[in-house]
Amino acid sequence: MHSHPRPLYKVFYLLSLIVFVASLAYYIQGSVSLKRGAQREKPAENETRPVSQQKRDSLPLDINEASSEELERIRGIGPVLAGRIVTYRQKQGGFDSVEELKKVKGIGPVTFKEIKPYVTLKSGER
Length: 126
Known about the structure:
By secondary structure, the protein is mostly helical. The chain has helices at residues 6-29, 51-57, 68-71, 79-92, 109-115, and strands spanning 61-62, 119-120.
């Protein structure tokens, strides 16, 4: 004489449903405001485009004007190499040509070939 297990299944079903709904509400809480009248700020126009598109729009970079952070956007230039480029530029008073980048420690023929399409010298002579 066993009791019917149905009431136990119903309890587990209801508990599972409650946990699911609570998890779903927690998940969407950060992305959807449930308050009336709440408005999300509209992102700036450049934030709506993919990062890769934003990077392409600002290239090539003028090596006599670009900051270390801007130089890091170029594939093949990390923080250390960007710092070396800026330091070299400051010590030399600027670059006379794009090819002068080869004199910066860490920029060999392979790296130079990789970064050359993304750099320019717009600001004339030193």
